[in-house]
Amino acid sequence: MYQFNVRVYGLLVNDQNQVLISDEQEYGMQFTKFPGGGLEFGEGLIDGLKREFVEECNVEVDVISHFYTTDFFVKSAFNDSQIISVYYLVKNLSPLNLMFKNVRFDFDGEGEILQSFRWIGLDKLSEEDVTFPTDKYVVKLLINNL
């Protein structure tokens, strides 16, 4: 029996019409995605998304609306599970206190797990800016809908 892996992500667009993306290094791979991650057992989607933003970005967010839920098969890049990703438009409830980078994978420090953040203008955003299939599809939707 195959496992399902439920993921939840936030699309945070600032006043300059830029979306926040996360460059990460983990499991011996480098990848770029939207902020968010895996749902923990016993957690709802909204609570999981809010927890992920506190953990990753040290900021509380308000969920504005549902944006997209995976509607095609996606196998995990890390194991044999099937990925189901849910995306929400979010807004930060306080200013983001992060060091924003301009270059992909510009990490501070060393270690197994690294993360950095960048803003990309919606007018410049392309599928090549993200790594995973569902994120690439969401980029297409963002470009066409925002």
List keywords for this structure.
alpha/beta; four-stranded mixed sheet; 8 strands; 18% helix
- How far is the first residue's CA from the last residue's CA? 39 Å
Low-confidence stretches: none
| Helix-strand sequence | EEEEHEEEEH
**Number of helix segments?**
2
What is the 3D form?
globular
Chain-wise SSE layout:
Elements: E1 4-12, E2 18-26, E3 29-33, E4 36-38, H1 45-57, E5 61-69, E6 82-92, E7 100-101, E8 114-121, H2 133-145
Parallel strand pairs: 1-6, 7-8
Antiparallel strand pairs: 1-4, 2-3, 2-8, 5-6
Structure description:
With 146 residues, this protein is α/β, with parallel strands linked by helices. The protein has 2 helices and 8 strands, in the order E-E-E-E-H-E-E-E-E-H. The protein has helices at 45-57, 133-145; strands at 4-12, 18-26, 29-33, 36-38, 61-69, 82-92, 100-101, 114-121. Strand 2 and strand 3 form a beta hairpin.
Give a quick precis of the structure:
The protein is 18% helix and 38% strand. It has helices at residues 45-57, 133-145; strands at 4-12, 18-26, 29-33, 36-38, 61-69, 82-92, 100-101, 114-121.
